[in-house]
Structure formats: structure tokens, C-alpha cells
Amino acid sequence: MAAPGIEVQPHELSIVIPVLDEAAGVVEHLQALQGLRAHGVELVVVDGGSRDDTVALAAPLADRVEQAGRGRGRQMNAGARCARGRALLFLHADTRLPADALPAVRQAIGDASPWGRFDVRIVDGPAALAMVAWAMNLRSRLTGIATGDQAMFCTRAAFDRAGGFPEIPLMEDIVLSRRLRAIARPACLRTRVETSGRRWARHGVVRTVLTMWWLRLRFWLGASPEALARAYGYAPR
What is the pTM of this model? Predict the structure, then answer.
């Protein structure tokens, strides 16, 4: 929901949301964004081949629902191509924006930061996830690298200059961050988005954190995203 008194001009911002089999939560997720939509923010949902009712449920609550090949990078690129906003915000289906997201993004871009991300809070999971989120936010602030859970945003000009997301099955957010960081340091907003802790709860906090560290280390050492995706449990359809 937009903060009181904040008027967003039509197509000042487009929110691009990649989805896959999200029928259980897509309505709630998009309903939470209707206040922003009412103020001119464009909502673009990009489906990666859902086998449930995700597309039908999303259609009345979005400005556009597009189809693309499976993969967040591919889906978010497709959404960016058809979006009409001068700035783009990429939002995962299990991440919620704070009430003051729009003025925060507007100020960051107005302060000459062509891209940035939010701090994150992990909800619906063990208490230890507060420390995980703290570490994620600190690492991102120190390195200038963002993750998709942090709701990355950028001007269209910066996105185009960076070449968009790489269309790889994993680490697309890391690669785009590196490209954008070469243009400018990110705006690291202390305003927090909330993201689901379901994957940590499902596999255990320690195991999930160690797995993610190991995958990221292998990526930095040159392992292919396809091999890492298989190790992460990504199963092509």
C-alpha cells in the first residue's frame, strides 16, 4: 500500500513479478499491491509455465500477465521488455513490500542512485532467521551485491545498459548486481521487505545457509549455473 499523500505518476514505476505455480498465494500477494496500482504503478506478472490456476487468478489483479520460458531471469527480462515504467522493481512472489516502498525508491533514484535494493526480514520461520537476514543485509551493504529476496530496483536506462538479467537457472540476481555495480554503487535501503522463510523451514536453517554458501563459492570459482541449479534441486520440466 502506498504511504498517505504519495501520488505516483502513471508508469513512473513498474513492478515485475515472476511466478510459477503460485495459485495458493498469488491473490493475497497481488491484493497487497493494489494500493500502489491505484496510484499509477504498473503490475506485470510473468508466468513461467504454471500448471495450476496462477494465471487466471493473477489476471484481474495485474495490468499485464505475460508468458515466458521458465526461469526467473528469463521471466523478469520478459516483464521488463513489456513494462512501461521509467523504473523497474523486481519482486519475488513470496516477498512483500513495505508501506513506504514507493517514496523510498523514488528518493533513492532521485539521489542519483540508478539502482538499489531493500534490507530484508525473513518471516514465518525459526527465530534464527533474524540473524540470517542481518548477515544478508550486512554482506550486501559491504559488497554491493544484492539478492532477489531484497527486491532489486533500477532505472530502465541502467537495466538496459547492464544487459538485463542473464537467462541462467540460478544466480541471475548476483550477475545482474555485478553488472549494475560496475555502473554505480547501489542504494542500500534500510527499509525492509519481508520474505518467506519457507525454504529455510523446509530444509533447516543451518543446512540451507551452508548449501547457499557452498553454491555461491562454487559459482565464484567458475561452476556453471546449470550444475549449481541441479545441486540446488532445480528440476527442468
Answer: 0.88
